[in-house]
Description:
The chain has 16 helices and 18 strands. By secondary structure, the protein is α+β, with helices and mostly antiparallel strands. It folds into 4 domains: 17-165, Serine Threonine Protein Phosphatase 5, Tetratricopeptide repeat; 202-286, no CATH class; 295-372, Uncharacterised protein family Atu4866 (Lipocalin, Beta Barrel), CATH 2.40.128.290; 406-516, Sandwich (Immunoglobulin-like), CATH 2.60.40. Residues 1-21, 30-37, 376-400 and 416-420 have low confidence and may be disordered.
Amino acid sequence: MRKYFRPWMSITAVALIGAILPLGSARLLRAQSAQAQTQKxxxxxxxxxxxxxxxxxxxxxxxxxILNEWKERYPESDYKLDRLDMLMPAYFALxxxxxxxxxxxxxxxxxxxxxxxxxxxxFVAPNLNNAPADVLATAEKAATGLLAATRPATMKEENWPTxxxxxxxxxxxxxxxVAMKRQSTAAAEQEFIKAxxxxxxxxxxxxxxxxxxxGQKKPDxxxxxxxxxxxxxxxxxxxxxxxxxxxxVNDYLAKVYSQxxxxxxxxxxxxxxxxxxxxxxxxxxxxxxxxxxxxxxxxAPAHVSTQDPASRLQLKASDGSFSLAExxxxxxxxxxxxxxxxxxHIVQLKTDVDIAIDGNRLIVNGSEIWNxxxxxSQPVSxxxxxxxPPPQPAQQPQPDQASDGVWVGFYGTCExxxxxxxxxxxxxxxxxxxxxxxxxxxxxxxxxxxxxxCATKNKCTTAAIGSTGPYYFRVLxxxxxxxxxxxxxxxxxxxxxxxxxxxxxxxxxxxxKLVTMRTDNLPSEFLSPK
Length: 530
């Protein structure tokens, strides 16, 4: 996610929202102004004609010309506010945002509580991409005033709840935008959430909220940000982005999602959920590529059916592929892990099959049990199993069978700049073995049996250690913790060499009688199963 942890500002306000006139609130404000006109009088027939022409003109550019002529000829008029009330929506229709704000400021100079001016300023200010400090201050003042607005005497009581809700949504949206521009992240987030709770249809607010959260560079919140982008891209109801804007946001969503998740699997389902709800459900989480890799690694590399020992599922954690031999047929494809569900994407059948994960075994079709193969690293073969593993890096001794036990290796893999701190404590059946470091390894000698290996107390995997080794367990960093999983020896030995791993520093060893760095030097004690 580091590659795109920056606010994304390439979409302009015009491309995203277009000239969407706030019709409901505008009608109510015009009605308010019209009712007040019974107390006003034109200075002469000329002013009356200008008033009539301005109100009847439907071409906004011509309307603005008439209103400006009226202002020049009759600078002092009972209709000063009326002219400005007509100017603001006309400027808005032509996307002349600065002119809307200037007209609003003129109106507020005449009436500090003018609801129409407060509304128009607050509504259009976020369209200014590079708003200077004085505009931010003006927008903030207008939005604050809008929140405090009370029903004008000229507005019908039954119209006020609808207008006030629209005012409050606009005010919170604008206050969030002002805070965002000032880089006041917490305040901006609170205002955006308030706006969405009042009106979940505000697609632009959803996008801003996602951009704000993503910019905080907190991996544990990436799922929230991606959900907000999905909402902005998928929602197509009132106040949605126009098709062009949704297309741009959708392209960005696809990029962000694949960079975090590793591919676009699950994106369609995410967009469907986000289209229906502006807020993600409690506990919502999108697995990162690192978490997916760790989940893959947590599964034994091979499983055998208890009903048919010839049926075998081989999982390759390094690239997420699998091979399946079942009922004399061969299948292949890719797989993914989501919690306690293993999903096989079977190429030959063009379908997905979900399999339940139960500890170190798989439950197929609700009842058929597939156990982890006792020696999962070895393919099914009628020939003899080699007594020695493939060669390891030159700086490491080659693990052979330990006397009365087998070698079990542990190593930690960290990509460059993956984590600043990497020091998980590795446990074996609640016994602290060592504090692992990035790209280091150590060994223990274990007697056959069942073990619970952990990277920190709560991140564990259960493994059956047989009489033929070696066995390897890899520790990976996740977004907020670590994961540990059994690795095929050939894969492990390739990683040990590729990452140029070194022996763990003795200062990190917590059980010196159990831990060793060399397989030609037996430890003084062996690990025993539960």
